[in-house]
Amino acid sequence: MDLSDSGIGHEGKFVKAYLTCEESLEIYYYMRLNRSLEELLVRLFRQNKLVGGLYGSLGQEAISVGTAYALAKGDWIAPMIRNVGALLVRGYKPRDILTQYMARYTSPTQGKDGTSHFGDLKERHVISPISMLGDLIPVLTGVAMAGRYLGHKIVAMTWIGDGGTSTGAFHEGMNLAAVQKAPFVAVVENNQWAYSTPVSRQAPLRDFADRAKAYGITRYIVDGNDAVAVVRTAREAVEKARKGGGPVLIEAKTMRMAGHAQHDPAEYVPCEMLEYWKARDPLSRFEKYLGENRLWDEKAREAIHARIERELAEDLKFAENSPFPPPELAEQGVYCEGCHSVEPEWRRSKAEVMPPKSSTEAAWTVADFGGIEGPKRASSGKRTTAKR
Amino acid sequence: MAVVTYLDAIRQAMLEEMDRDPAVVLIGEDIGVYGGAFKATAGLLERFGWERVIDTPISETAIVGAAVGMSYLGLRPVVEMQFVDFIACAFNQITNFAAKSHYRWGAPVPIVIRGPAGGGVHGSAFHSQNPEMYFVHTPGLKVVCPATAYDAKGLLKSAIRDNNPVLFFEHKFLYRRVKEELPDGDYTVPIGKAVVRRPGRDLTIVTYAAMVHRSIEAADELAREGIEAEIVDLRTLLPLDRETILDSVRRTNRLLVVHEDTRTGGVAGEIAAVVTESAFDDLDAPVRRVTSLDTPVPFSPSLEKHFLPNADRIAAAARDLARY
């Protein structure tokens, strides 16, 4: 059942037993690891063992994990600050996130940057975000366009908050993706708050998916706290984009259950609102789903929890024993000289993009003259050139 | 050997690089069917097709962002800014995304952002600017400003083959006014290397882009008075070729820096600092500057003429310096 453009995502009850037992337990592992890792980070922050601020995804784990889970191995992602779950699905380990937050030499950036600001072009196809919101939208559009150009059947995905959709970069990127029909999926995590500003002060919209109408692209709205619905919706969106259907915007409705960052007590959030969302906690709901559908038992649950506890203990030890980077590193790597090893991986014939095969007539196809009476069609699209 | 304009040299560089490497693609506004506002990409859509010559919406941020994304998969996009003034719209993508990518997480961004800069064509405040110093202040970028057709072609080829984000500021006053015979085959000009355009013993004029030609006019006039000015064409502002500047100043002992960019925060200040730090004892006179005024670029020809440096002002400053 294709629910795109209906404005309604997949409801949990509709997709019961949609996931296999193995998939369900894997998704649970990532969601639980996401939360436990961030609980550990909060403790470390309070013990003053982190460098800089700590940003969390409490209450939003189903979105990061569920959407990233819908991607294939060769696909590309760029996480934002609250997408640790997506990084874990992509194969990063807790030690990568711990060492980033602790600014150690062993971190993916060797201490050059912190938080989720890291990536890997070769194996995991992860692009590092920057702190300025919206800029990943055009960058991932370019990734999607390049993938298509090289003959890859890839999809590019990134995440953005309700607040981030107010930026000019978001609009420019979505619009370029739309006219290019780029295989790109934008996940708008509507978590009700942009730092202290409520969604009503970002845009007078209840559904941020409505923004998709302006780009003429497919949109979904999904319950972002229902992991099964998120996976199913994301899989449909990803396949649509992969098949050439153009970019897709998914709005996942959720709630930021802590402050903007650890320093923020979020006193501007009404208690009743937190209570409402606490009753819809994505992990509790997914645990209930697993139990009701007999996808696990107590033994399986304990095994996952024990695995996570063990992995976190090992990786914390690794991070704490890691050195800070040598000071001279600060001077290195501003430029890439003699180090470039990112070669395009061609999966189509290069001859197709070289003359004479690539040669074409420089003329636009104009099918609609744009008058107020409605589409006025020249016979099957008129080619216009400058010649008169 | 054929006589080629500065503009056509730029077009040739793109065409030849696209013929050489299918990873090279062009992206920008009106570059395909129309061939670019100044026709720098004329005929390239016909030759390379819609996938490699990409006409975009009016979205400088998205254009640069998409180029960055493409470069992560090994492509080498060349972005056209219709006028380089519009680069301001993409400032964040350039200075925060592209420039810091390799340093922060080891991901090189081999892109070129090129387009027409500079005044003298009555374009007023938004079609005449020299925005190079916004970017010279950003580690991770390279900033190139060619003055001749030979350099424009050779430097653009180097920029396309470079593994870093290169801003390539073409001077639109030179597009069809400057021409020379170019070699038939492939050649490159290295980024980061200045060149002595004219040898001289009495003073050094360090300059770039259109002001190279104004400085040569001034030097010819000075020569008739017996003052021999050496002209150093920087060609690249970032990284700056300190050695060539210092080598010249150590021989002439006098330095005049000339640029069309505004005065405060212009590259002349940086060059003066480099020279006083490293060759203070070689100087026989204070460093002088001839620049445009610290104002927006004005529109009316009488105002713009007053705003821009010219050969007379360069010669006057050089005379003062030679007599100091």
Backbone structural class of chain B: alpha/beta
Average pLDDT across residues of chain B? 98
Radius of gyration of chain B: 19 Å
CATH architecture label name of the largest domain in chain B: 3-Layer(aba) Sandwich
In what order do the strands lie side by side in the largest sheet of chain A?
Answer: 1-2-3-7-6
Largest sheet of chain B, order of strands side by side?
Answer: 3-2-4-5-7-6-12
Q: Which runs of chain A of at least 5 residues are low in confidence (pLDDT < 50)?
A: 1-15
The amount of beta strand of chain B, in percent, is: 15-25%
Q: Can you give a write-up of this model?
A:
The complex is a heterodimer of chains A (388) and B (324). Chain A has 388 residues and is of the alpha/beta class. In chain A, 36% of the residues lie in helices and 10% in strands. Chain A is built from 11 helices and 9 strands. Chain A has helices at 21-46, 61-69, 84-89, 94-101, 136-150, 168-180, 211-215, 227-242, 271-278, 282-292, 298-320; strands spanning 76-78, 156-161, 184-190, 193-194, 197-198, 218-223, 248-253, 364-366, 382-384. The relative contact order of chain A is 0.15. Chain B has 324 residues and is α/β, with parallel strands linked by helices. In chain B, the strands form 3 sheets. A 7-stranded mixed β-sheet of chain B has the order 3-2-4-5-7-6-12, with helices on both faces. Chain B is globular. In chain B, 59% of the residues are buried. The mean pLDDT of chain B is 98.
